[in-house]
Design brief:
Elements lengths: L4 H13 L2 H8 L3 H15 L4 E4 L2 E4 L1 H28 L5 E6 L1 H4 L2 H10 L6 E6 L2 H10 L4 E5 L7 E9 L1 E5 L20 E3 L5 H13 L5 E4 L3 H9 L5 E3 L1 H5 L6 E4 L6 E9 L6 H14 L12
Parallel strand pairs: 3-4, 3-5, 8-9
Antiparallel strand pairs: 1-2, 5-12, 6-12, 7-10, 7-11
Helix pairs in contact: 1-2, 1-3, 1-4, 2-3
GO molecular function: DNA-binding transcription factor activity; sequence-specific DNA binding
Keywords: DNA-binding, Transcription, Transcription regulation
Organism: Rhodophyticola porphyridii
């Protein structure tokens, strides 16, 4: 098998954009060139990578597996290319940060923008991804700083843990809003919008209802806190949401209440143990930790 990087790059671009046209624009080559590279890759792999549905290219299951392996490699080369451009332009350093999705829609963009105000020559590389991928990126040196969910999958990081308390978010007209604090007993039969069964908020909420002897009704499963909040606003159910999704939403239409027992979400800021942080990275890390500190949940009072 003789797979060339350009073929993988074309495949990655099609997977990301969903069309040959989008991939051609992204890579700056012709549409026939993209189609030819994809055809070459399919001949080398001996399986179809996309099915055409209503003008879009839908990845096959084999393409999904291949994408997971190709993604880090292609993005790594993008970082190399950007580094060359920065050196050519004599940029004043590059901030390299990756974050899990919950912080990426408001908290991180605002913090990075504030940090960049006094650094006009700084270039910025910011990506949001699932926590396992963020750990791979930081370990591989593609990003200096990562913010992800526990657990840590590798013993390769300097890390700064942060436990945040989630709140129950509900439509503003939900009758449960009359309570100051919610519990499994008060929420019996209420439809929940949840993350996948492996997510810590899913497991911990399920355990809280099980311990209380109350049936837990799940209605919608999704993969982003932002999606959960959107369904809440539509009155589709209630959701346990982190403060970042709630504090940086500007649409309104929902209210929040504390839940007991508390459902915690464990976050961690990571850097590579094998590589020292740049001076720019050190400055941003200090700011990031200071801004995250107010979100840390206070310890629960002890009895007696």
């Amino acid at each position: 098998m003789s797979i060339r990087f350009r073929q993988l790059q074309a495949f990655h671009a099609i997977y990301e954009t969903g069309t040959v046209t989008g991939a051609a624009a992204l890579l700056g080559i012709s549409q026939p060139g993209i189609s030819n590279l994809l055809a070459q890759l399919e001949r080398e792999t001996r399986f179809r990578l996309f099915e055409r549905v209503k003008g879009r290219l839908i990845p096959t299951p084999e393409a999904g597996v291949l994408y997971q392996e190709v993604d880090t490699v292609v993005r790594g080369l993008d970082h190399v290319s950007q580094a060359v451009v920065d050196l050519q332009n004599k940029q004043g350093g590059q901030l390299q940060v990756a974050s899990q999705h919950a912080l990426s829609f408001g908290f991180m963009p605002k913090l990075i923008a504030r940090f960049a105000q006094t650094r006009p020559d700084m270039s910025i590389s910011f990506q949001s991804q699932y926590s396992s991928k963020i750990q791979e990126w930081v370990m591989a040196g593609l990003f200096e700083i990562g913010i992800c969910e526990m657990p840590l999958l590798y013993d390769a990081f300097e890390h700064h843990p942060l436990a945040v308390e989630t709140l129950v978010a509900m439509h503003e007209d939900n009758p449960l809003a009359r309570h100051e604090v919610l519990s499994p007993a008060l929420m019996e039969g209420e439809p929940f919008i949840v993350m996948g069964p492996d997510h810590m908020t899913h497991r911990r909420t399920r355990e809280a209802f099980h311990t209380a002897g109350v049936p837990w009704r799940t209605r919608i499963h999704t993969h982003l806190f932002k999606n959960k909040l959107s369904f809440v606003k539509e009155g589709m159910g209630v959701a346990m949401l982190d403060p970042f999704a709630l504090d940086f939403d500007e649409g309104g239409g929902f209210v929040t209440r504390p839940f007991r027992p508390r459902i915690m979400m464990d976050l961690v800021v990571i850097t590579s143990r094998a590589r020292p942080l740049s001076a720019l990275g050190q400055e941003f890390l200090a700011l990031l930790l200071a801004e995250l500190a107010p979100y840390a949940a206070a310890p629960e009072p002890t009895a007696g």
